[in-house]
User: Which sequence fits this backbone?
């Protein structure tokens, strides 16, 4: 974990937090359960979210708390600036954890033991086997309990393990896809070996404790995703906190995973059901709030609008005339025919969590390249291709620029870094948005702009974007949408726009729990954050704290989110309340 605050201020906070949590979780006795909580992210704000949700559960039932932490050179080089496990141990002790397991150190022990074998005849990286660790991993003890060497279960499905290896290697190598050259490299072989060791270590850990919950900030890659895979195999609920807003978390329960291809896909289905059953009937009572949130989101750079990287909007587009004026300026800037419709294609971070939801193309790069080829043939519209603002953290190959160079000289195609586009300009120019799973698919419909998705996102079952059912359907959807644009057909219904605005309201308001135990993300990581927490824990009584109320409601009702208030019992005065 990284500390962006004074050590003395951190120590003062820890002293207060230790007293607070010692008096605010149930004591552990015989028969107590176990909660695994991940602190594998360097940001203190992420740790506060996972630990607070875990302790919210410990107010419902007594449980040991085991913290998973650690890092390795590959993760450090790809993502982190600093990671100090000593700070995690201090924080975990203050939050009354029973033990801290450095899972990366454990994996190092696995590899040093030399007890494994190559996963298949073709060498590391194939799907032929588990990696050779089942029944061969080193002994280790957690929370005073010896972890069994063998679980008595079949190892993780070979195809699932191979997919995790691939996605982890692509992310750590920061490449859109793996080539034979990557597979022949030392770093790739190291990543594969560590991934196989993670799979066995998590299997054994879950077999030893059969945890009541896994609280995590991510559900992808080896260090997080294989814990999620183990949770699925052992029937453990997964609470997935969000790195935005105040306290936000999704929840995925064992029964959700029975027929779903992945945890993210299961979540998509549950969100769609919840939206129809609980949210949509409330649309009249929250209409004012939904309109307000959508208005504020025009200039808001907080997630889920992190695809936009430049300065906040300094101008509110209030009328159609103002939009047309700005649109004409934008078309001139990019050399577009001003009277033609413009399709904006939003490139996703190309190595990000490959294959973790339903995606119809081979990978994110394949979708982007093939869409650019399609666009080159559709000269009847303008095409604006926008990169991801964090692309540099996910791609070391210059992928976006390579595709742009491939199509240089085509008058109807423009490739533009998102940081160079004001949000108002983008909203004024775009007539159709295209993405795989990006947040533009929920933002654009809120402003009356249709969106097409080539894959699933959390919200893609909520009815405000058009989600392709396969590759062939994707091309058909694009053809239909472009033909509709040229014919002047309105492609977003009033209901779709209302649904998108309702989702805006829900994600930014109803599913965001304000609590003094988790300062808003925008409070940063400095001394100020620690002082806010110290004051809250010393002077604000915990009874009825929104964090605890929300966790209890979500857990007992098996709801897919934390919510600020009880939506199931909401009435016409909800917004006024």
Assistant:
């Amino acid at each position: 974990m990284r500390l962006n605050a004074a050590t003395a201020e951190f120590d003062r906070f820890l002293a207060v937090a230790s007293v607070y949590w010692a008096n605010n979780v149930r004591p552990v006795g015989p028969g107590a359960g176990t909660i695994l909580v991940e602190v594998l992210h360097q940001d203190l704000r992420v740790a506060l979210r996972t630990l607070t949700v875990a302790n919210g559960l410990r107010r419902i039932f007594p449980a040991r708390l085991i913290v998973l932490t650690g890092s390795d050179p590959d993760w450090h080089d790809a993502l982190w600036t600093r990671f100090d496990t000593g700070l995690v141990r201090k924080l975990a002790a203050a939050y009354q954890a029973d033990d801290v397991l450095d899972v990366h150190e454990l994996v190092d022990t696995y590899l040093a033991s030399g007890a494994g074998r190559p996963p298949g005849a073709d060498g590391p990286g194939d799907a032929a086997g588990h990696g050779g660790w089942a029944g061969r991993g080193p002994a280790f003890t957690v929370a005073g309990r010896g972890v069994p060497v063998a679980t008595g279960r079949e190892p993780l499905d070979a195809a699932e393990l191979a997919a995790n290896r691939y996605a982890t290697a692509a992310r750590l190598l920061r490449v859109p896809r793996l080539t034979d050259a990557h597979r022949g490299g030392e770093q790739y072989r190291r990543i594969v070996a560590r991934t196989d060791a993670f799979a066995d270590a998590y299997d054994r850990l879950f077999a030893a404790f059969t945890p009541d919950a896994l609280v995590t900030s991510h559900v992808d890659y080896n260090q997080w995703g294989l814990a999620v895979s183990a949770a699925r195999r052992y029937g453990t609920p997964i609470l997935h906190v969000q790195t935005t807003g105040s306290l936000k978390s999704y929840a995925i329960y064992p029964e959700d995973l029975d027929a779903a291809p992945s945890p993210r896909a299961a979540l998509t289905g549950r969100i769609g059901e919840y939206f129809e059953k609980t949210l949509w009937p409330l649309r009249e009572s929250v209409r004012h709030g939904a309109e307000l949130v959508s208005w504020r989101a025009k200039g808001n750079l907080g997630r889920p609008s992190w695809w936009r990287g430049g300065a906040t909007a300094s101008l509110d587009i209030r009328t159609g005339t103002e939009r047309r004026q700005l649109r004409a300026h934008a078309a001139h800037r990019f050399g577009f025919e001003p009277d033609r419709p413009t399709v904006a294609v939003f490139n996703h971070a190309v190595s990000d969590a490959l294959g973790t939801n339903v995606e119809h193309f081979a990978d994110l790069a394949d979708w982007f390249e093939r869409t650019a080829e399609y666009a080159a043939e559709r000269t009847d519209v303008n095409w604006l291709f926008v990169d991801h603002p964090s692309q540099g953290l996910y791609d070391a190959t210059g992928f976006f620029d390579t595709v742009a160079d491939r199509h240089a000289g085509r008058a109807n195609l423009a490739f533009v870094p998102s940081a160079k586009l004001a949000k108002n300009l983008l909203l004024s120019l775009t007539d159709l948005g295209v993405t795989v799973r990006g947040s533009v698919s929920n933002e654009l419909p809120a402003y009356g702009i249709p969106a097409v998705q080539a894959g699933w996102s959390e919200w893609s079952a909520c009815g405000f974007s058009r989600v392709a059912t396969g590759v062939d359907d994707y091309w058909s959807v694009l053809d239909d949408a472009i033909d509709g644009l040229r014919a002047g057909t309105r492609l977003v219904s009033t209901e779709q726009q209302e649904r998108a605005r309702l989702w805006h309201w829900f994600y930014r308001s109803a599913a965001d729990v304000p609590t003094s135990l988790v300062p808003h993300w925008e409070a940063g990581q400095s001394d100020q954050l620690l002082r806010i927490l110290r004051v809250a824990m010393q002077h604000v009584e915990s009874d009825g704290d929104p964090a605890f109320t929300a966790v209890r409601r979500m857990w007992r009702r098996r709801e897919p989110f934390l919510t600020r208030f009880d939506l199931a019992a909401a009435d016409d005065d909800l917004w006024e309340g």
